[in-house]
Amino acid sequence: MRRIGLHVPTVLGRLRADRGLLLLVATVVALTSAVVGAVAPLGERAADRAMAAAVRDAGSRGTVVANLPRWYDDPAAKKRDPGTATEMQQDADFVRSAMPHGLAQVLRPGVASVTTTMLHLLDDGPGRYLQLAFVEAADGGPEVSYKQGGPPLGAPGHREQPPVQVAVSGPVAGALGLEVADRIPARDEYGRTVVVEITGIFEAVDEGDDAWQVATPLLRPTTGTADGAQRTAAAALVSAESLPDLRLVLPGDALSRRVLFAPDAAAVTWQQSASLEQSIASLQSGTGLGLGETTWDSLLGSVLQDGRSQVSAAQGQAQVLLVGLIVAAMLVLVLAGQLLVRRRAGPLTMARERGAGLVGVAAELAVESLLVAALAAATGLAVVLLAAGSVGWAWSVPVLVVALVTPALLGVAVADGPALRVPANRSVRRTRARAALLRRLGLETTVLAAAALSVTALRQRGVVGDAAGGNGLMAASAVTLVPAAGSLVLVRLAPPALRWMLRRTRRAVGAGPLFVAARLVRSGARVLPPLAVVVAVSGTTFGASLAVTLHRGQAEGALSIVGGDARLDARPDPSLTAVAREVAGATGVRASAAARVEDGVRVSAQGGSAVVRLAVVDAAAYDRFLRASDLPDASQLRRLGSVTGGRVPALFLGGPEGLRDEPSLRWQDTSVPLEAIGTAPDVGASVDPVVVVDAGALAAAGVDASPNVVWAVGPGATSALDAAAARTPGSAVVTYADELERRREAALPSAIAGLATASCAVLLVLALLAIALAASIDAPERATAIGRLRALGSSDRELRRTLLGEVVTPVLVAAVSGLVIGAVSAWTALGSLSLENLTAAPEPPAAVVPWWTALSVVLVTGWAVALALLDWHRVRRTPLALLLRS
């Protein structure tokens, strides 16, 4: 400490003397550190909740299925094997034990199953189909209770063709007309016959048990129409005792053996999602697992990939907000360092003249800054640690470094200032001035180039988070670098404009405008104050636009996926057309429409094929419905008419271009030729292509599509559809309000909206601090000039106008520039931030800049007015005699 000249009493004395300004620096560091430190733990929790929600919402798409090898029994020596169920259980246990440990931790124990194809029941005409299914969970489930009869016990006395004993649920028995003790002959698609014996009618103890998801028709039959005939399909439960009979009467290629693992959504975290995805890919590729012919099927990898893309998009959006917040905080800290050093200019110069070394001066200032900045950062991070349980410190490092280094560097420059004497040689002075100009031009060129590169990166790659390698920081800086470049351009344009204004005010009546212009010419070339204000106001505008655009996109996405204010989902039923007419006449309902909406429908054309969402609507009624709702109109619905030339007119949305080249619809075992005549409306925010046809035209082509959806719009839509649902068995009502609430309460959107709101508030505070610090830095020179004007006889009104013009004009120009740049950044950059991943909409939402962002200009301008009036009151309190003597 002695070798570098560190004087502890001097450090302590400076801390006491400038405690107010140092407390402001500590507040900025603590506040910024707390905000950026909370992003990591809260963001990780939001990411975990988002991954869990993605897996939970995926439903059956998130399951992992192990397809066991088929049984190959010798037909010549085939006999009943009583150990069939035990063999199946052993195979399932082996699959469970061989699964990768990390993947096994997020999957439930699994359900083993043996299922047949659909068997056509031959006892009572066509249209009745039954699948036989053996289902066994790891804990022995599923549990059932018998209303009639009992469980299947098998038929070991039969040798060649025993009946397969099964049990059915109550709804299945009612739909297929089955009773206990019935023996029904059945045949598969290859003509092989089997006799099915009904031993009992059961009901499930827990319908939510994973075991029932293996064969959903076990509990509820499905009905439909094929070739104009009614078709009913269901499943029957095979027990462990009757499974050997099933294996005996049907060959191995007629039985599918699987073990289905449903994911535990709460156990899936963002950190482990990448390794889980790799484990699933390894299983599907057949590497690293010695299970013979066992194959694996799962869409869980794509579900995790979609969830990770949402998290990555949210991380990129958070980076955009954090970069602006950190840069604004660093600019305020630099302004605070300038004010601090200006107050200490006299003591620092004197210490240097008395022999103090520059290293010693820098060390003293660095120690002082370290004490203040480290204590403030520790306080902010400690608050986050206590509140959130963990903290992210990496983003607070730049703020801490600036708070530590700035006073030391500026202090050394001030202390060494008198040693840099002005040379008498004019050429040397010109050389120095030219070098200073080149340094400034180099810095400005660097900022402009960085802004251009960041904008290019943003437009080409978008913004990605740390999940993609963290290479999106350059793109995330675009929203901050563009305002910085704009402020540099503003500062460059200010001197010519101010000189022009000075020339104009020389001819003006009164001295006030001339004084203001003269003062602005002297102080208008400063870069840091307008840079801080422009960055802060621009960041506030962009953050508010991000939050409002996100909310607007969620509203549009919710309206699109519901299809109106409320939607009734039911089984296909012709009576839903009458329900739609009844709902349309209810109080508070503007319009209603019924339709048949089916996913997974195949459309083939000469240019390719695709799986589409088919919407069969009454074109006129649906057109009236869209006009009455807030959904986009589809005027081409009027073109959907009767069949012409053997082809049904259809509207297409999305899909390959070749899909419109003589397309053909394959649905309900019928092929319907289509004619693409226009663009379809988006039905239910479908990710697949959409095909819309008229119900009458499709019926004329021989396909009857009973409605399964009723939409309604208007304030009374929900209550009207609720009343209709009470009279419609098996129906459910989905409302726009519930969907919108679910989206806004989702983990990632709520986290980004909260961060945007917090960053707006902090940026406004930083803008006010930057204005106050800039006014304090110029206060001594401004007080001297105003004092001279007062001593020369200027009136209080002229002095007040001069102060207001000098203080308020730069702030107003910078604030308006920041507002404009922030609005332009929002309109141009929000489309590259992948907001559609958070709004769950098929397209990025249109950028919205709310009108109330202009209030930030009013706030900072009013703050500048208040500071100018305070200066004016200070000047008026100075005795005139003292001004004359000075």
Automatic annotation (TrEMBL):
The chain crosses the membrane at residues 21-42, 320-341, 362-387, 393-420, 441-460, 472-494, 527-550, 751-775, 807-829, 849-870. The keyword Cell membrane applies. Keywords: Cell membrane, Membrane, Transmembrane, Transmembrane helix. It is a multi-pass membrane protein. Residues 761-878 form the ABC3 transporter permease C-terminal domain. Pfam families: FtsX (PF02687). Signal peptide: none annotated. InterPro entries: ABC3_permease_C, Macrolide_Exporter_MacB. It is found in: Cell membrane. It comes from the Bacteria. Belongs to the ABC-4 integral membrane protein family. This is ABC3 transporter permease C-terminal domain-containing protein. The lineage of its organism: Bacteria, Bacillati, Actinomycetota, Actinomycetes, Propionibacteriales.
